[in-house]
Specification:
mainly alpha
């Protein structure tokens, strides 16, 4: 019995360490993405990041993974919700608001995770603490969105897109929970999700290529469309990829924040439980705010600071039994 408890404690410790490392790296991603948006579109960053991550996972686990009949659909939905929709909307959000704002709003993902697991998998995570924490966090998000400026400006657009990203992560957590219960290898499972995510990005990439070939400009297409699509022209790519800062940010996002972190996160969720691990995401804004302060020079008002405290407090309260 003691050996069994010891093994479980050791397994939990490894899972906590993996979750902590993942949260730390994911907190930095907002700053890296904000930096890359000066040279790349959100879609370009997304595609390059997960293509690098996909290759990295093949290097770590160069084996084909057998999949049960019908489970490819689960992997496809997981890739769509957790990578294509979640990351794409997150990258777009950073184009319209601050990196700190996005990280704080996305940190509400545990709320949606618990809610969707309750609805679809009958998980017993919803209680009075959960509801109270959710209300407090929503109030915090409102303050963060205003951040000292009581007006519905361009920041609101970015903040709402970020909220949609958090909801998408909640749906991804449902698919991940189902797949973890079926015992798939955590590296092979992450790699298959990336594969489907990249497939879902191809139509958007094709649209970007078409726009570039036809010389679309601000006069012929909306600024929003230009923001999310990409310019694949060789001249532009050569200039951007010669910048060491861009190369370093893409390598970090692809190899560490995508390939390693998704693998580690899947392992942590399998060991700790999806909701228990996801609650730790409330630490991401702390990491992001520190890096955004030093790297991007972003500031936050007293109202925004109060919003951070409320959002994090709500997430902590939601984790109480």
């Amino acid at each position: 019995m003691s050996n069994g408890l010891s093994e479980k404690s050791s397994g939990d410790l490894v899972s906590w360490i993996l979750a902590a490392i993942t949260i730390f790296f994911w907190g930095i991603t907002f700053v890296c993405t904000k930096t890359l948006l000066q040279s790349f579109s959100p879609l370009e960053i997304l595609f390059i990041r997960y293509f690098l991550g996909y290759l990295f996972l093949w290097v770590l686990y160069p084996k084909r993974m057998s999949v049960r009949k019908g489970d490819n659909l689960l992997f496809a939905f997981a890739g769509l919700a957790g990578v294509t929709v979640y990351q794409f909307s997150e990258n777009i959000a950073i184009s319209y608001t601050t990196a700190s704002n996005v990280s704080i709003i996305v940190a509400i993902s545990p709320m949606w995770t618990a809610l969707f697991l309750q609805l679809f998998l009958k998980s017993k995570e919803m209680n009075r603490w959960f509801v109270a924490g959710f209300i407090i966090s929503i109030a915090g998000i409102a303050l963060v969105s205003f951040n000292g400026e009581l007006s519905f400006g361009i920041h609101l657009k970015g903040d709402l897109i970020a909220l949609g990203s958090a909801i998408s992560w909640g749906l991804y957590s449902v698919f991940l929970s189902v797949l973890n219960r079926r015992g798939y290898h955590y590296i092979g499972s992450s790699r298959r999700m990336f594969f489907f995510a990249l497939l879902f990005m191809l139509p958007l990439a094709a649209a970007g290529t078409f726009q570039s070939m036809n010389g679309a400009t601000a006069e012929t297409s909306s600024a929003f469309v230009q923001t999310i699509l990409c310019d694949w022209s060789p001249a532009v790519n050569a200039a951007r990829f010669s910048d060491f800062r861009n190369i370093a940010c893409l390598a970090f996002l692809g190899i560490l924040a995508s390939g390693f972190c998704f693998m580690a996160w899947n392992k942590a969720c399998a060991g700790l439980g999806t909701v228990k691990a996801t609650i730790g995401l409330y630490l991401i804004p702390v990491v992001t705010t520190v890096f955004a302060f030093f790297v991007l020079g972003e500031t936050i008002s007293l109202m925004g600071a109060a919003g951070i405290i409320l959002t994090i407090a709500g997430l902590v309260i939601s984790g109480q039994k």
